[in-house]
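User: quick one
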Amino acid sequence: MVKFGIKNIWLHKLRSLLTVLGIVFGVASVIAMLAIGEGASFEAREKIKELGSNNIIIRSFNPPADADASQSSSLNVFGLTPVDLRRIKTIPSVENVVPTWELKETIWFGNAKVPGTVVGTVPSYANVYNLAIPSGRFITPADQDNFQPVAVIGAGVNRTLFTTEPPIGKRIKIKSGYFTVVGVVGERAFQAANEGFEADDMNMAVYIPLTTSRAFFGEYEVKKGSGGMRSWERSWVKFHRFVARVVDTGQIMQTSAIIRSLLDENRKKTDYEILVPIELLKQAEHTKRIFSIVLGSIAAISLLVGGIGIMNIMLATVTERTREIGIRRALGAKQADIIHQFLTEAVLLSASGGFLGVAIGIIVPKMVTHFAGMTTLVTSWSVIVSFAISVAVGVLFGIYPARRAALLDPIQALRHE
Amino acid sequence: MPREIIQFNEVWKTYALGETEVHALRGLSFTLFEGDHVSIMGPSGSGKTTLLNILGCLDRPTQGKYILGNEDISNLNDDQLSDIRSRRLGYIFQSYNLIPQLTVLENIGLPLFYQGIDETIVRDKSSLLAEKVGLRDRKNHRPYELSGGQQQRVAIARALVNEPLLILADEPTGNLDSATGKEIMDMLDELNHEGKTLVLVTHDPKISEHSRRVLRILDGALDVSR
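Assistant: Done. Structure below.
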């Protein structure tokens, strides 16, 4: 029966292909879109692993200037302060808070250079961010106390500057200061390219003791302004970032609300933002859900259209092969045999469409990953479910034509020209 | 005395045409014996085709009894009739009625296929019959690659494959030239010699000459005037 079915489908290759196109697109779009959605939430989970699921990140930013504020002052004071740090530390659900002061600067080693981010911070930063140190060590309390000019470099900096020799003990130059490399941080999987959250690529960071950074670079940052050749924008920022580690993940939202109210007591304008990595997951799940609904409707419509296409072509086939049905009935085929035959054909048709759809649905996410750099994840259940649906479509829309074939009067059918 | 294969006992077939009733068969009675070679003749509209359909178990009598072998089939349902057709009857049609997508062997084996017989047995049997009708080197050809005479020989092989009680041939030479027609008739006569029961439906006296008995049908009843 299956053999005859395949034969009949193969006999009308083009027609069969056109018929199953709806199913192909339906199945392919389901798998591809689910792969993209899964990829996004996978990426979110990875990001959270990098940023710490128990962490709350508080970042300073320069608030937009008020229209009526005097423009004469060229010094911008904003951001997180030591007072903020002390107050956050008093919150019982906060296990630890680490501050950073950051500077985008060129990192030199001999004649080699790379644009990086200098991060002045404290020893416990490594714990809060789960940094792996495969060679050397992180900043120690002794470094901190003694203002040591030491640096721990990110994997990206290491890869770019130290192509031939081991970095430990070498001296890198930042601005006019020299720092001895004492450690290298392991590669962080999560790249800065797919951003919006943590703006810096952690692989391009150079960690130095906060005390040392104060001594070398102060607290000012001078940037060329937008107002012409002679205008400079100076900003005074005590800390660029706090990372608060919460004891229990369940307390994260509550704790971030407390932090927000603490910080707001001391300021007129909001010059910070609070980012909760675990929120990313919620956002990703939300996006995924919307995606699934939209995509589900598209898939349902195209599968419906595909099913109608199959029904249409099967009805045409039944008419075309009325004589054959008559012959088969005369030779002893029961009505059930005829139903079986045409249903098999319909299901083979839709299943081959499903198969093609699965193939395309697996290739497309690979291409999306290749060309758009998005993470995609084809899950086996999406393949199984959408293939099963394509088979079900064949059964559903094949039954009516098959029944019609079976109910033909054998005598009439035999006489059909 | 040869065994009785077919008994028609007061068989009526009535069609309702709107308000009026049309009697295609009016109390037809006859008996056919094993090894018979019978022609059914009659002008168009005589009820010849209706008789053939009932004989072939494609239709049921409205009234009366039809006994095939020793089964009363007047009141069987569709599935039971299908079963009888696949086990008891062989058909040869004027227009061959082979299935174009299937090979010669597959066409021959079709009645056995619907009995659910094992594929290799069907193949062997079909192969043997293809050789018997002289199509040894055409087994895997498709019907459209064969001449009319060859196609009718495939149909004969197909009518033999299930070892039927009765072979029904409806104008078996109607689409063939006279030389090929004669070949086919010789082949059918040969089968009759081997003991097969043969019923021919024809309006060609030359064909009915081959038969030992002729049933003439007129207005749904046996015409005994000739």
